[in-house]
Structure formats: C-alpha cells, structure tokens
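Bench notes, afternoon.
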Amino acid sequence: MTSTLEDRLVKLEALGRDQGLDYYPVSFEEVPDSFMMEIAVYGLPVRMPHWSFGVRYIYQLIQHRMGHSRLFEVVFPGNPGQAYLAKNNSVQENTLVTAHVLGHADFSKNNELFRRSQKQLGYKIVELAASHARRIAMAIEEHGEEKVERVLDAALALESHIDIFKGVRRGKAKGRENGNGKPVVDPFKARYRDLPGEGDGTGDGGSEEPENAAAGPAERDLLWFLAQSAPEMEPWERDIFLAVREESFYFYPVFACQIMNEGWASYWHARLLREADFLPQSDYLDAIKTHSDVVRPHAADKQASLNVNPYHLGFSMWEKIIEEHGLEKAFEIREQDDDFSFIRNYLTEDLAEELKLFRYEADKDGTITILDTDINELRDQILAPKYHFGAPTVLAQHVDTDGTLHLVHEHETDGRGLDLGRSEKVLEYVQRVWRRPVKLATVDATGTPRTIACPAS
C-alpha cells in the first residue's frame, strides 16, 4: 500500500471506531488483477485444484473483458481478516475500498450467522483452505490425479447440499465404528429402523454420539451422509468430502447475507468518506463517483425488473432503516438478521416503489404501467434463489438392503422441477463414490414425476 493510502486507512479506522464499528484487525494487500480474478473464481486465495474452477475463471475473464464486472476488492473474514485490493485501483478508489472493507469486517465479526460459522471453523479460513489443498495434493501424489478428480467431481457437485442447522461438527454415523470405513448394517435392524416412529434422528449439531446416516429420517446434508455411509469409501475420499463440506459452511453466511453485508459495507464507506475531513475535495468527489458506480440500481445497462444490484438494494434499505429507526437499531439488525428476515421485515412497499423494483411495462407511446405491486410476491422473488443455498432440496431418503441409495427431491418445497440432464450427471458422480445403485425421485420441468437411476435400469 502507498504511504498515502496507509495514512488514510489509519484515519478511517479511527473514524469508524468512533462511529461504533467493531471489528477484528484487517490485513490489506495490493495484488495484480489476475490474482484478484483467481481469488474471485476460487473463492479463496488457495483452494483445492479442480477443473471446474478453470471453467469459472474463463467465464469471469470474458465477463471482465466485456465490461460486465470489475473487482475492486476481495475480503475474507477472520481474526485477523484479510483484504486484497486491485493494484490498478487509483488511490481514490482504494480509499473507498478500504472504508468498504471496514464495514464488511464489522458485519462479519458481529453478525450471528458469520459468528457461528467462524466459531465452528476457526477464524483462519485462508489457512484452513490451504491445509485442505495440501492434503488433496498429497492424495493426488498417492492415488493419482484421475481418482482424486472423480471424488472432487462428486463432492463439488454437492457443495451446496449441507444442513446448516446441524452444524459442522457432527458425530460419526453408526456402522463406521469398525475402523475400515465400511458401514456394518444388519438388514433386519435396518428395516426395523425404517419403521415409523423410531426416533427423530435430528441430532443437536455438536453431539459426538454416533448418528444413523443410513436409515431413519431423510438426511439433507448429502456431503456428510456420503462421507459417513458410502459402503466402500476410502478414508482419503471421506477427507475430501468433509473438506468440501467445511468450506461450504464458510461460504454459506456470505451467500445468505449478501444483500445485508454488501449494503452495510456500502453504507459505511459512504458515511466514513462523507465525514473524512482529511480527504481533499477532489479525492472525495472521485471516490463518490466510484460509490455511484458500485450502488447503481442495475448491473451494466440492464433495466429488467428484479435484476437488482445487492449493493444498491442493501445500501438503500440500510439508509432507510437508519433514517427511520436510528443507528442503534441498525446495529441490532446487523447482528441478528440474514437476508431472509432482512428482506421480509424491512423491504417495504413504499421503498420497493421508490427503488422501482416492481414489474413495469412501457407502451409504444412511452406510457409506463405497473404490472404488479404485491410486496410479498416481490420479496419471495428476490429470496427464491437463496433458499437451500441456491440448490434444489434433495434428501437421502433411505438405503435398501442391497445397498441401493434412494434420494428424493422435495419439489413441492422448491416449487420447481430439475434439469434432468444435469441431474443425471450429478447422479453419475454420486454413484461413483457410493458404488451401489442410486435412484432419485423428482419431477421434470413440466411437473411430471420422474425417477432417475444410475446405473440406468
């Protein structure tokens, strides 16, 4: 960092703490654009190797070159936090970015969802991910790239299928106590456990008591289920599944609080810069121009309804909350809520209309007609992509005595059918590690019941 930026950071930190911000120390580092792109694609500075990240990188690179996105910063919560700034940012842009990062740091330290995740995983996610990458590199050396990639294919295909209510630390499934990684399931006992009313199997998220993953109530944490119950899964394969699962628990709060978190950071960078009397007027104006680009209503030149910019929506909501309820109430909301409660409780009909979030139609003569003003439907449409970590709700229902795994898609909960082609591919990945037949009950895009089997029957 330049001496000018370092000096401004010290003053912004003091100003933020005077305003009530509370955060762990943050380490700032300026890095090349290419490194920023890699971090954005992998989600972490160092992460397990897999071909899918290369595909994501190409997509992000094309979008970047087409002008559809720009990376100003990437920040990782922790104690200390870690923030990367793009080297090609101007001093004025990075002045805003450092203030933005302080807002993120305050949010991640105090928000309950972030706090619970960090407590379970530890406060050094970058180091944890690097450890995972090293262990997978060792597995590649020992077992070969092809074998490891097949396991990563399956684990990363299911990376959103966790159960955040059970927590990261769950006890081992019954049947793994013999130490060879293979469940011991008596067929009669398995059928007996499948009878209605035999326990609830919920666990408390932190119990060290063995849990029954192969029978009983349906299990939504597919990464945990397969790691614990796949009949022939090797210990190194299980480690990969659990490593992917740990990283998914890290990413969940980022996903579930995106509107709140980005809006909070945007509110604070605007507030801190407005009150930073040490900034030259010209630098302040340049920084505010960047602020306007960050919090504009729509991405690029798109004006489609509900193509909302989370920075803009979150920033506007926090401004309204603080204006109407005060800063102390905002700190309370920041601590307790996630995007679901935030949108449902504080996106009002008046604000939605002011932000032009309802669907509009323009006639040939230029007359604008509002097509829909149902605030509850608007909230549902904004939140719909966030349910169940953005993935369809698929549960491990039961295992037959011959080892066939039955999965069920809760399409009524999701309100959608599955892409059958993609589902068949994911099921193929699952079958590779389950090493027994796998069946999935679902519906297609038209709502017609379908059963996908691998191998095909």
